[in-house]
Amino acid sequence: MPPCKFFAQGKCTQGSRCRFDHVELAIAPTLDCVPSTTWQKGLRAAAVEFIPSSLPSTAPPPPPNADKRSQIPCSFFARGSCRNGESCPFAHPSAVTSKPEHGEGEAIDVVRLTADMARLETEGSCMRTLNGAVVEFGPGGAVSSFSLPTDYSSIQILDIPSTATAVKIHDFLESLGLEVPLSAIHVKGVGTSAVVDVKVKDPLFCEKAVRTLHSVPFEGQPITVRSIQAGSASGVSANRLQASTVRCSWYKASRVAWAQYDTKHSAERAARAMNGRAFGDRIIQCKLQGGPQTRYRPGMIYSVSIGGLPGTASETALHSVLESASKVVLGPSSWNLSEESAADYIKGLLSRAGALQSFECNTNLPGARVKATASFGSSSEARKVVRELKEHKLGPMAQSPLHLCVMVSVKFSVLADIYSAVLPDLENIKPRIYDEGRVNLKDYAPSTSHQRFATVRLVGEDPKSVAKAKSLVEDVLNGSVAINDDKIIWDDFFPRPDGLRYLKELSERHKIFAYCNSRERRILLYGHEESKKNLEQELFDMVQLLSRRVHLIPLNAKDIRTAIRVALPKIHSRLGKDSATIDVPRRTLSLRGTARDRNAAEKILRDASSNAAPQHAPTNSDDSATCPVCFCSVEDSFRARCGHAYCGSCFTNQVSSYADSGKFPLSCVASADTCHAAFSLDELRDAYDGPGFEALLQASCRAYIQRRPQELRYCSTPDYEQIYRGSMDASAFDCPVCLSSVSLPTVWGHYSEIIWLQSYGMRDV
Q: C3H1-type domain: which residues (predicted)?
């Protein structure tokens, strides 16, 4: 079929139903060009380079005669509804990052992380979150950087004036002896005040900062400081763990009364009528003194004891309820402190035991107990207070016990679209997790349409119950991968602007949400199961259609001979004999295949151009070269950048064998095993599909951990692969996966032992 002219103009409304070929004109690749970065794709040919506001601008100023509108992002394109295509005078950027509204601190981190990922991918390295660690990989798939959440410590400063800046906070901390880089301070405006997050690569910084900043005002205004421990930051279910809040409870003052009756019948009837009934905010217990077998004697008085009365109960109030009683006798109150004075006494007790940050108590709530929440600077401080004061006898309150427990809280920041899709699933698991472990699940929808994230929060007393509920929530938030016959449905078309618009249209039509995970090369689906199956079929049909698309790649006139003699045979060998043709008069290569096939062809063209120079030319052609693995003539050639050629299957098998044995970096074995040139990540990514490449990175991470048994080890909870770093510091911290409190001291000459703290610190750390 001839190419669709409306598709070329960006105006075709038929989509996959169009009878004409949707020929895609590649923007970047000529033979001697460098591929554009992630932020440069999708711009109009006449538009100057667009740089998002969240990245440092290094672009040259636009020429004087350039259309100023080309620097402004097209608002219709951002909504996926621009009909002007290439003729649009405004810029069509592939990713636009705008300044988030107040209260969207999580959005800032996600945009910054996405930018860092894109930068690393283009610089020959990549970053992944594996086993709870942020791992950076370099040439040969070897680990070049490995950092854990426990390598850092973070604090959050609340009640800061809204006029505060990062520079002011930096000077304030420096005046107190806390050396913090300016780049580690992030100020977020929240209403009339601000919240400051400080993250430093120093595990001991948090405790020192909380201790130093305790009761220190900022610009004359009192502030609150608390430690923040990051949770498992992986994918869309990244979370934040907090265990520095203590729930306190104690009994209110109470008293006992006795109601006297002239007849046994009247007393029994009163006891039955009043037992278990509410009196004020209490449930009272009534019992006939002496029991039902008491024998009648003339002039005998029958007494009913009434327990559980408020300490403020009066004789008059009881007479109004017990009208038939001849007399009411009140016993003394258990203690004479007012509820407010009792709360102040508890607050003072907690502040003497640890660095108390805040204390909230409402003495007017009904019930026999008073409940309060106390916040401390860190989870270790909260555990220490619980360990010292648990079941403490309150002297001024008749030796009444003080009940304390650490509250474990896990907060998820969820994309608003994902939240809307999974809300019914979250509602379904709410009663289940509460009945099984008394864990409360609360969700908070975005307050405005500009906010990109919703919040889901789990709160409970038992870490094991919260960890179990956390696993259920993560299963919902992780979604399901779009597959067909156990194979992942993917094409490089999906993460591009037109592909994202296509996924958005599918999501709206099927009433679910399709999330494009470009890093792991997969589509995640959220919503009703039947709708997921229908959407999977449409995605599979689209991939099949994309495999038949035609891409036109412009060629450079001076290198067209190299393209015909060198590049085209390699493209045929890798993608098929009918996959590509070269139109010499028009100087274009016509490729039929997916967007990934187009990227592979572009790479072959660039490599052919760079290898055309004598100093880079291989000594043998692929047809006469010998594979260094099987020692046969090369078939389905794969040529590494060092110039050595492999059979395609031999290369993947050799790399897989080395990866399974933990031999990283993966390097060339040619020239009698003397080359040792590390394969680039681009070469490994081209040789393997998305899941295969991710499996290589995971194998590299496992090998890195296994070579450091004294430094790194796994969480001892079964089926968890969280990694900890041993240190001489034996301070406890909270595992972000199983939520237990652990201590990892390293003992010289011996393996360190994981000490699990049971019952909120009943065992010494």
A: 1-25, 68-95
